[in-house]
Amino acid sequence: MLLDVPDKCGGVDESANIFLLLVIKSSPSNYERRQVLRQTWAKERLHNGVWIRRIFISATMDTGFQKRRLNKLLKVEQRQYNDILQWDFTDSFFNLTLKQILFLEWMDRNCPHTRFLFNGDDDVFAHTGNMVEYLQSLTDNDGSKHLFTGHLIQGVGPIRIPESKYFVPIQVEESDSFPPYLGGGGFLLSGYTASVIYKMSHTITILPIDDVYMGMCLAKAGLGPESHGGVRTAGLFYPNHPPDKIDEYDPCLYRDILLVHRFLPASMYLMWQILHDPDLDCAPQNK
Ligand SMILES: *[C@@H]1O[C@H](CO)[C@@H](O)[C@H](O)[C@H]1NC(C)=O
């Protein structure tokens, strides 16, 4: 481990005071994304009486001088914000499972009683206020029950085309079908479910596709994912509106969602500001 924030949750016992921990996958070079998230949806704050905290999970990039420069950047950011976990391995798509498992191990050690987690990418728009309100509305809202909800993917299996980004050779995964899982762009889980996945990860060989791997861990524990209609990792889609008649950045479309995939830093900043404008006026049909 290169960078750690062992007291992020205030210690093992105090970690119960954190209602939602935002765990954001971020490569060292994504400085602009981290900066805008710190000012927008990932701001550490009290919302509706409960605490939201933020952590970026990162590894290393490049080699030589460039690698050292990027490590230095994270170190400087850490000094100011105290919100980065960094491990010394190559930050790449096929190493994301490793990142996830290392995070769960860290969580088990430092924040075991944290109620809920948001796990996602640094280029999504996450409506963290809505997430808190949704989680508070559950009957079991202390994080001690199973919860794993987001964009559900099922009935798919490994892609055997070597040119694909998601190529999984038969030597790595024999089975032709994956268990149901949640798209890795962003999902919510309880502290309980995080610990179940961590325990199961000791018994399952790593599959280098992180979101599928978490589905495999859950399946082995006899648990499953659940679909949440507010998580739009595939973007917004309104079947009753022709695409040219709909402004995909209309803030009124974002009031009730939990997450939308792919936002550039400037759009993220603007959307967050507009959504929190007390004068935002949305006609009922836009809901
Ligand atoms: C994962 O990280 C290790 C350690 O840095 C590196 O050797 C390996 O090439 C990386 N794997 C991929 C697929 O990038």
TrEMBL record:
Gene3D superfamilies: 3.90.550.50. GO terms for cellular component: Golgi membrane. This is Hexosyltransferase. It comes from the Eukaryota. It comes from Scomber scombrus (Atlantic mackerel). Belongs to the glycosyltransferase 31 family. It is an enzyme of class 2 (transferase). GO terms for biological process: poly-N-acetyllactosamine biosynthetic process; protein O-linked glycosylation via N-acetyl-galactosamine. The lineage of its organism: Eukaryota, Metazoa, Chordata, Craniata, Vertebrata. It is found in: Golgi apparatus membrane. GO terms for molecular function: N-acetyl-beta-D-glucosaminide beta-(1,3)-galactosyltransferase activity. It is a single-pass type II membrane protein.
